[in-house]
Design brief:
It holds the Pfam family Rhomboid. This protein is mostly helical and about 210 residues long. The protein has 10 helices and 4 strands. Helices cover about 65% and strands about 5% of the residues.
């Protein structure tokens, strides 16, 4: 396993275990809109290392393990970390924007950062086959990526389940943009995929404020 990927998994494990054992630690570093707006910006990063339970932790870390290897082997350690933390922050920032009027909204988990790594991997290898639950059918990476964006937008609008769809979506957008910036040649891997995903992202920023009115 790549040492940077392993280091991130260990850091997530240590922070998660500490959060399980110490409520004050958990509450001090989780994502909470009111606290962040009052100046505790560090929560936008630290919340990405806390998890609700072992299933939540295991799913995120297994996904990071699978896709992290792909992305880490294609970038330098510094650039891989840049993709990870830009995605984490993008997820937190978009979640903050979407929930800015709910001071008690809180969230935890590495899903934003992991979503960015997943998208980076898809852009590098758009032909890879992935499964999007609940469909038990392998889908090409470019179909998965487009479907993931649309599903996250729908989930955010419908407030589906106890899931931070806005953080997933923000992380995916962060991973998409920073990968394109660091490796413009990924555009040639599947120009149609890049243009469609880019179009969805642009439309989201232009018309996203109208989602709540639909």
């Amino acid at each position: 396993m790549n040492k940077i990927v392993l280091g991130l998994i260990v850091a997530n494990f240590l922070a998660t275990v500490k959060g399980f054992q110490d409520d004050s630690f958990f509450n001090k570093y989780k994502f909470q809109v009111g606290k962040i707006l009052n100046g505790e910006k560090i929560r936008m990063v630290t919340s990405g290392f806390l998890h609700a339970d072992w299933l939540h932790f295991g799913f995120n870390m297994y996904t990071l393990y699978l896709f992290g290897r792909i992305v880490a082997n294609s970038f330098s350690d510094v650039n891989f970390l840049l993709i990870y933390f830009v995605s984490l922050l993008a997820g937190s920032m978009y979640s903050l924007f979407q929930n800015k009027n709910d001071y008690y909204y809180s969230a935890i988990g590495a899903s934003g950062a992991v979503s960015g790594i997943v998208f980076s991997g898809i852009m590098l290898y758009p032909g890879m086959e992935l499964i999007m639950f609940p469909l038990p059918i392998p889908l090409p990476g470019y179909v998965f990526g487009i479907g993931y964006l649309l599903y996250s937008i729908y989930g955010m609008k419908a407030k589906m389940g106890n899931i931070g769809h806005s953080a997933h979506l923000g992380g995916a957008i962060g991973g998409f943009l920073i990968t394109l910036l660091l490796r413009p040649s990924v555009f040639n891997n599947n120009p149609t995929m890049i243009l469609v995903m880019g179009g969805i992202i642009v439309a989201l920023f232009l018309f996203g404020d109208k989602l709540e009115k639909l």
